Model the fold of this input.
Amino acid sequence: MSLDQSAQKPQDRLAAYLSEDLERVDALIRERMASKHAPRIPEVTAHLVEAGGKRIRPMLTLAAARLFGYAGAHHVLLATTVEFIHTATLLHDDVVDESGQRRGRPTANLLWDNKSSVLVGDYLFARAFQLMVETESLRVLDILSDAAATIAEGEVLQLQAARNLATTEETYLQVVRGKTAALFSAATEAGAVISGADADAQRALYTYGDALGIAFQIADDLLDWQGDAGATGKNVGDDFRERKLTLPIIKAVAAADAEERAFWARTIEKGDQRDGDLEHARALMERHGALAATRAEALDWAAQARAALAELPAHELRDLLGALAEQAVSRLA
Amino acid sequence: MSLDQSAQKPQDRLAAYLSEDLERVDALIRERMASKHAPRIPEVTAHLVEAGGKRIRPMLTLAAARLFGYAGAHHVLLATTVEFIHTATLLHDDVVDESGQRRGRPTANLLWDNKSSVLVGDYLFARAFQLMVETESLRVLDILSDAAATIAEGEVLQLQAARNLATTEETYLQVVRGKTAALFSAATEAGAVISGADADAQRALYTYGDALGIAFQIADDLLDWQGDAGATGKNVGDDFRERKLTLPIIKAVAAADAEERAFWARTIEKGDQRDGDLEHARALMERHGALAATRAEALDWAAQARAALAELPAHELRDLLGALAEQAVSRLA
Done:
């Protein structure tokens, strides 16, 4: 490996390794998101699918299949499926999130976008479904239909958990699986299945994808409290302002005394937030070690992801997937 | 057949014939719409799935399978699949339609419902997908994934066609297939496939379902212009007020002179509607025979549905399906 390569991020090195497959995925995305009858569909999806997507999920499927020397074409169908499901959930998340941002009074323009987001999301989900049927693997269909149910269930659970101080770490984990890990693990497991890998290898790649997704999401939620805006593209404290119960806050609430509990009830449950509250919230987290404990959990999930790979045969892609798990948490201070 | 039976509507006679199967479908619906982690899901779906649904789509699947003497259990999985897909599209339609009804300013309560509608619809769609994978029939998966894509495409097309006087009868037909006929034809065709019926019989049942769905939808759209509110549960003129381009209006616009065209442009494109406009619109339709021509098309599609059945072996269910096609248009004056 040259110096240049080692300086690159693992996901860029994966993209370079898989560049031919990724080009086929991109071509298939363009072909399948078209609609003979409804030209609005590619207009709505183009900015999501074409512009700057990191393609992390398709890369997971492609890498899992190539790791076992797969030489067919079904991994490209599957990788495209996974990206379409991801894009469909992004479109539907927009509907759920945007409405909150405008404080219950969306503009007509926003509503038009909502309609398009719902229906075009449905279209992409149906197209994903058609693509995976083309693989003719009932096992793959099983994995991806289960993932789709876990994703939707996790989103509903997140709605219920919002602003609810009784949210447990168990519920948080279920939400994280729905939000991120279910599609990561389906992407890696389905890639292994399509390549004909044995049951142990399939299981190892499922475990890798699941742990990787959880590590990424916990790291994201931690950076919302202590990151710098440049690293995440989000503003520090967004989750606090949106009253989201993520792991750092769940841990701080669990350790709170009566006075602290009243603070969380006012700021999160009632939504009465004042100057200095964000800083006080962070001070309470430091007091109870909530940020350090969250960081430790993220590192532990990343380690579990790497450990799962140890069961697989030696391969450059295996090492790149391991490096990706390290990258998930290397952003943490 | 007793006098009592002959006095019943065809769909009630179908329900009586299929009552045991329908009970199994209802039990499966209750079982599969539950969620271990997100109790809100059955709360949202219960009123849609349990209360007064006519179960027309599941009956189509069950009847198609039983027509060929199917004695397995997969037709119940399929019938439940079809009802879940239907319920998911209703939930997503709510989001699309309700926002308009409140003139761009939904209440917080409405927004909460929107979130739940989008996500619970996604959940039901995923559950439908799991159910059909359990049939282990790639052909059935193919039929239903194609139907899902046609449904979503039709909905987007309907958004584009709204308020657009250039909408053609061809576009209208595509919208109707997405809205109604695609799931009807998938329900009947998949029922035939699962029963092991031959290719000609599968094709005949596809044609029956497609024509039945189109006949039903054209009849609904006609009744919006000339029905009595009691028969449809809708107010006459709703589509005019909502500026929807259905078949009667498309035919009237196609035959319009310059003055009439200006009327349609003002009322439909610009949405400037005044007292007496609804009556004037109907008078224009009468002048050009648009209502009579629409009625003739509905009758023709119902006749096509019945003709398709003629290719199938004699069976009480075949006669009931034929009567259902008559019922679709018997509401028309």
Q: What stands out?
A: Chain B has a mean pLDDT of 88. Chain B has 17 helices and no strands.
